[in-house]
Specification:
By secondary structure, this protein is an all-alpha fold. Helix content is 55%, strand content 0%. Among the domains are: 35-82; 122-212 and 225-268, no CATH class; 333-352 and 364-411, no CATH class. Helix 6 (169-177) runs antiparallel to helix 7 (195-204). Residues 413-423, 448-461 have a biased composition (Low complexity).
């Protein structure tokens, strides 16, 4: 009986054990799932905490910057408020001094008639500018500046002092540039481009408009309200004209520079135009004055973004200049940027050098690009006194090597172009025989002479057989191939084509000389990249050159 009961209870006990183990497995899976979920939640909340902490640190840093900037501006406002009386007294004293200075002579002492024209400007730049400013002759002033454009350094040095002799420097400067800015109103536009003169005058008038208080200076330009309103109107007219022509990005660099300098000089920057100013600064960032103008126009909060965009566009040298002007060298170290610029430039001109062109200009262009990049880096390092961190010995040595290679190529080209018999064309009569020296130059496609000749002709033929062919055939109607023709001087001995130009096989003809007409081989001239007459190219094979005042 007991054995039978045990046998009946045994299957039930096994099921209970299996159920227990299954429950344990479920509990284990649940525990593992909970553990994974806990880990995921921990990582998620940890990421949130790190993000919140990073944002908090950034906000605190920005708050400190804003508080510091606000404190500085409040201090400047307090100083300006306290200096108003002193500035007015200084301005009045300067006006009295100008009033007591000798005035230009008039035709009539009673003043009824028109004033006599001012005396012709002196040959001396300083005297000529001072006389025109004292006489308040803006048209003659602009003409004098344009006439002395070759003496731009002297003009830049003497203009500020001369403009301070004006009774109303703001009106005088606007009158002087109004003929060509914001739009060119001249009936005869000769010279065609005078934007450089506008920039020169607008830069030079800043000291004349500065507050007499030396502690404030140009931070508070003394521009009358009427002059300020006129300046705003001129800026609005320039913007409208630029938009009609396709946008500010398509404007000429000197014109865009003159616009920004006009806005900065007369302190007529508008908050709603900040994005416009930023676009112009980015489009013409390579100009020397752009970093300073960006800060003057109120783009100090956007300088980091501007520098990052310049780096993205591969304009590391411009980024270095902006970082120095904005005081952001800790975030944008100049040495890595310069090294990055050299690496990118090397990749660019190496790529262009590897691409073979039918014109044979790839090596020359790569040499020029590398020299330009090296000179730009050397100038940037010297301007910012970075020789200790960025030695220039290797760059200067490489630049000398490139210049020597360029000189050797020129010598080789000149020696090839001055060659003797190779530069002569073959001429023949209608039925006469050719001279031995000329007949020796003719060979069929196999390189053998076309007819027996004397020793002189054999030696001449030997000199031409196997010589590298020029880049194009200067055919005269002959079916014969020339192993060495008088090609362009640039390709003499340096042509990438090492095999003679392949003409169709010569057809045997009666010995009638060269007078018999033959079909000339086709002549195709390669298209020089960037110098054809297409859009954006230069028909005269020269890039546009602006006045040297643009690049200062």
């Amino acid at each position: 009986m007991a054995a039978a009961a045990a046998e009946e209870a045994a299957p039930g006990g096994a099921d209970a054990i299996r159920d227990g183990f299954a429950e344990l497995e479920r509990q284990q899976e649940l525990l593992a799932s909970c553990t994974r979920l806990y880990q995921q939640l921990t990582e998620h909340f940890g990421s949130l905490e790190r993000g919140i902490k990073s944002r908090s640190d950034s906000l605190r840093a920005r708050r400190r910057v804003v508080e510091l900037r606000a404190s500085r501006r409040l201090d400047a406002l307090r100083r300006r408020e306290l200096s108003i009386d002193a500035s007015v007294k200084l301005a009045l004293s300067r006006l009295d001094a100008l009033a007591k200075s000798p005035a230009p002579k008039r035709d009539r002492e009673d003043g009824d008639g028109p004033p006599s024209p001012p005396p012709p400007p002196s040959d001396d730049v300083a005297e000529g500018l001072a006389a025109l400013c004292a006489a308040m002759d803006p048209a003659g002033f602009l003409a004098f500046v344009v006439e002395r454009r070759k003496e731009v350094d002297a003009l830049r040095a003497e203009l500020p002092a001369a403009l301070q002799r004006c009774v109303d420097p703001a009106r005088f400067a606007m009158d002087a540039v109004s003929e060509v800015f914001p739009v060119d109103r001249r009936a005869v536009r000769s010279p065609t481009d005078l934007a450089w003169a506008c920039v020169l005058i607008l830069e030079a008038v800043v000291p004349a408009l500065a507050d007499p208080d030396p502690e404030i200076g140009a931070a508070r330009p003394m521009v009358p309200q009427a002059a300020r309103d006129r300046a705003r109107g001129m800026a609005a007219e320039w913007k409208e004209a630029a938009e009609r022509k396709g946008g500010v990005e398509g404007a000429k660099p000197p014109d865009a520079h003159a616009f920004l300098q006009h806005v900065a000089t007369f302190a007529v920057a508008e908050k709603e135009d900040k994005e416009l100013y930023k676009r112009i600064v980015l489009s013409f960032s390579w100009r020397r004055q752009m970093p300073r103008l960006a800060l003057t126009l109120g783009l100090e909060d956007d300088m980091e973004e501007i520098i990052e965009e310049l780096i993205t566009k591969g304009q590391q040298l411009d980024a270095v200049n902006f970082a120095y002007e904005a005081g952001l060298l800790e975030k944008f170290s100049p040495v890595p940027l310069l090294k990055s610029y050299l690496e990118d430039s090397k990749k660019m001109y190496c790529t262009s050098d590897n691409v073979s062109t039918s014109s044979g200009q790839s090596g020359v262009n790569a040499n020029k690009k590398e020299q330009s990049a090296l000179r730009a880096v050397i100038k940037c390092v010297e301007d910012h006194k970075l020789e200790a961190e960025f030695p220039l010995e290797d760059l200067r040595k490489r630049l000398e090597e490139l210049e020597m290679a360029k000189t050797e190529k020129k010598k080789a080209a000149s020696s090839c172009s001055s060659g003797g018999p190779a530069s002569k064309r073959i001429k023949g009569s209608a039925g006469g025989a050719m001279s031995p020296s000329k007949s020796g130059r003719l060979s069929d496609n196999t390189g053998a002479p076309s007819s027996p000749s004397t020793a002189t002709s054999s030696s001449t033929a030997t000199a031409f057989i196997g010589s590298p062919a020029s880049h194009v055939s200067y055919g005269t109607g002959s079916p014969y191939s020339y192993d060495r023709s008088a090609g362009h001087a640039l390709y003499c001995g340096q042509s990438p084509m090492r095999e003679p130009y392949a003409y169709p096989p010569a057809v045997p003809v009666p010995n009638v000389g060269l007078g018999m007409p033959y079909q000339a081989p086709p002549m195709t001239y390669p298209i020089y990249a960037g110098y054809n007459s297409g859009p954006g190219a230069y028909g005269n094979a020269m890039a546009p050159a602006f006045h040297q005042a643009y690049y200062r």
